[in-house]
Amino acid sequence: MKIGITNDHRGYLLKVKLVKFLKDKGYDIVDYGASSEDSVDFPDYAKKLGDGVLKKEVDLGIAICGTGIGMSIALNKIKGIYCAKVSNLSEAILSKAHNNANVMAISSDLDDKANEIVLKFIETPFSNIDRYIKRNNKIKELENV
User: Which residues are the active-site residues?
Assistant: First the structure.
């Protein structure tokens, strides 16, 4: 599986740790993020990841900024991207199992908890239950409103 990862300046250090962790777990990583802690505008890096997911360069995406909120808002403006702002294991599981999110956004403050949360997001399959399919289709319809 190929995972895309992006970050702004505040997410740089956590990205470096996550990339190593995921590579050690055998995942292929495509880095769309900032390459240092020098200040950048997170929407630019959100777009790079979103485009990579839509073009199927990667299977899933991970976005990191100070809170995860900015990346999530920016990514959710891209038609076809379903980004969950995730703070814990339960949200990582449910964002995939129920909402079939293709990107997760996390806070750089997660630090030591991030490995487990990201891995749970990647490994959780969509449940494919009718009520969730119906709800997700309704979400997709909102893109055309």
Answer: 98
CA–CA distance, 124 with 133 (Å, rounded to integer): 16
Structural domain that includes position 43: 2-142
Structure tokens at 6: 């992006």
In sequence order, what are the residues at sequence separation of 6 or more whose Cβ sits closer than 8 angstroms to the Cβ of residue 119?
22, 25
- pTM value is 0.96
CATH (domain of 79): 3.40.1400.10
Per-residue pLDDT of the chain (145 residues; tens, 9 = 90+): 999 999 999 999 999 999 999 999 999 999 999 999 999 999 999 999 999 999 999 999 999 999 999 999 999 999 999 999 999 999 999 999 999 999 999 999 998 899 999 999 999 999 999 999 999 999 999 998 8
Q: Which two tokens stand for residue 83?
A: 């980004």
The C-alpha atoms of residue 45 and residue 133 are separated, in whole angstroms, by 30
Q: Considering its fold, how many domains does the chain have in total?
A: 1
